[in-house]
Protein 1
Amino acid sequence: MSSQTAAAQLSSEVQKFDALAHEFWDPRGAFHPLHALNPVRLDYIAQRAELSQRRLADIGCGGGLLAEGLARHGAQVCGIDLAPAMIEVARLHAHESQLPIDYRLCSAEELARGGAGAFDVVTCMELIEHVDDPAALLAAIAALLRPGGALFVSTINRNLRSFLLAIVGAEYLLQLIPRGTHEYARLLRPAELARLARAQGLELRDVSGIDFNPFARTARISADARVNYLAHFHRPE
């Protein structure tokens, strides 16, 4: 997919983030919660998967925050996104950081058509709740993974607590993220995510919650997955 084609096909969800790409690396900008979450996500992945010299695909990489951390752990990272401005920001920042990350403007489905079974690890952070067809995304991810590979997904649960905290509180009251970032109906419960992944031959290994303190701007792993959570899946040999 060329950059012109991708731009022409931008969904409303992609447009939300593409318009804010210039703020991506500002720790006090529109994406500042991601800057707090990123060390927690990175540690979770690094504790559960070998990264050094492993091929890794970061699906929905945005401006490259997680991708750069993974590259610093020794992974050979390919980051993809459908937002042209995000990919441009990611490439520029990786160049400044002297990190050899392969950023591509394409979908997971397109990457899978050219690289089935090519990756040891796939990460998909804060993306699945924004796509129209989560099952199709997981099918593409499963195709990308080699047997024995690992998938890590970060998303938001769907219940009253997550609605009040992640949408009403974070978007409207505290204005931590732009209004309209999340749509409640698109959120997935862990059991729903596990069922979709299982249909693609992926086994659930772990679900852990992420506690985010909006006032201290800190995050930590917890046993409470009622709002933000991380899931680890495995593709059997």
Protein 2
Amino acid sequence: MNIGSFIASEKETYGIFFDNYAQSVTDDFKNKYNSLREVVEKKILPLMYENALKTSKLKHSQIKFLPPIINPTKIICIGMNYRKPYPIDGQSMSNPKNIILFGKNSEAMLAHLGSLEIPFGDAADTFDYEGEIAIVIGATARNVSVSNAHNFILGFSAFNDGSVRDWQSHSIHAGKNFSGSGSWGPWITPVEDLIDPSDLELTVCLNGKVVQNASIKDMIFSVQEQISYISSIMTLNPGDVIATGSPDGTGASFSPKRFLRTGDELEIHVSNVGSLKNFI
């Protein structure tokens, strides 16, 4: 069962998702365990499933999606994690020798069906999408080995690392953290519900046209290597999000470049997980 957060009857809640409907935990359960992150921290997902399955089914049209974990302690992004077959601004891009990290603020991230915010002023001219596969951490991870890293994965989601390219060129943090420029969701698919987590495929469509397509196997640094590396620097907490990098096909890679404009529709699909849709 997919898990995530949403608003129902004007109340913020969380629960389980199916293709056409969601079920919230009860008010009593929500009062005892305030957020989905707390449920993950306390390792009581089976108890949450049991509780939510007893409540009414809500059509997706009856709820407002929220980022699956509304209060992660960290959102960490991986840069340059797919091979780039094209030159960028006339320069060929070689594979990085080390994992590249940067952080994302929660304020930058919207949910499924949210309207991405066109940046103010000149920043609007280079507003780009980056479809990615996101990992959500399920247990505290510190100095974990590559071989053991899979044990710290809660599940997977779809992620849009919205980027303002001109700002990114002089400040990664600025270019990656415009308010309402990114999104993730619509939910988290727990790793135990996936037949083969090593076989996920990412497909990104802009206005119905495929612009990005890659397999998780195409990454330069694997999911396990990313978790191990990050945990050697900092503690990964339950509910933390790692965006694993974006493949060829972003707007900056086209000639002429094709950045996001008002009225665009962006859909990021992760196979066997779900589709994240946003409007510009």
Protein 3
Amino acid sequence: MGALPVHDFKIKSNIHDYEVKFIEGIPNTLASIIMDGDVILIDSVVASTYPKIQQNLNSNSVILIDALESNKSYEGLKPVINKLIDCGFRKNHRLIGIGGGITQDITAFTASAMYRGVKWLFFPTTLLAQADSCIGSKTSINFGEYKNQLGGFYPPHQIFIDMDVLESLPLGDRQSGFGEMSHYFVIAGEIEFKKYKNDYAVGMEDKHVLANTIAKSLQIKKGYIEIDEYDTNERQVFNYGHSFGHAIESLTKYTIPHGIAVSIGMDMANFISVKMGLLDKTVRLEIRELLQQIWVGHNIKHIDVEKFSRALAKDKKNVGKELRLILCKGYGDVFKAPVKNDSTLHSWLEEYIKNEI
């Protein structure tokens, strides 16, 4: 098939600028950048699937991470921090994360807190992490049953994207990655979304198409985070689908993958937008045609509406008792709106959960 096109680029940050590089093969790249004192935090599944990554590394410099939401918490971080202290990790050493979003959050949060901040690098190994979470600076850990309640902003210094590791991903993880990317392409506008929709089936199989899709997703996100890194204004549109998606994740104990929950959440946001007279039903159904392909095999009919409403009330964007939901007026027109968590919204949520999926 030949070499992949080069999509390397840099991102400006108030904290420190950082670089995204597309590579071919994690082991060779890792060997070329590793320094004395570096500690690698690697997803245990990735480590067993790709044993070459750990070849020629000191076992004391590798910490295996079980990528579970329960480990993305203060309790889950304790053994990681203990191992770092025990192995002599210092302020001038670096953390290198290899894995998906959970490994990223564990590495980033730890790096931001250890000695008030140490350098870290990231090799994302899931589609969702490569096409979305690897850039943007956010670090998040869970608190109790609620997702991403604690965190800050602390970007890696370098990100290395290797497309080859995606070949071993289960179908559900690929669908989750596409689910997460979907909100960027609706935000980007009708032309970008319809191309993305048309490329979906091919992109699931074709490495070149997927590489271009990942690069475009990151470029869309880059444009927003460089003007609103701390998520106080323009960037908040990226929460499209996420308020509902996070509630779905929490109430299903994370049995529905993040990107798939977001795809359902986008459709819920569009459903409510139609109910409020903001969005043409035809546009909602055009977007839904793709989202249905992504969430196939999952449903939320067992979720209790009252519990769902309470989970929405915990969302970080809310002000007082009023929800702040990201709604949609059409392609390229996604915005934050105040919505009362009242009987009208409850009836719409109940209708959606019972009849729409």
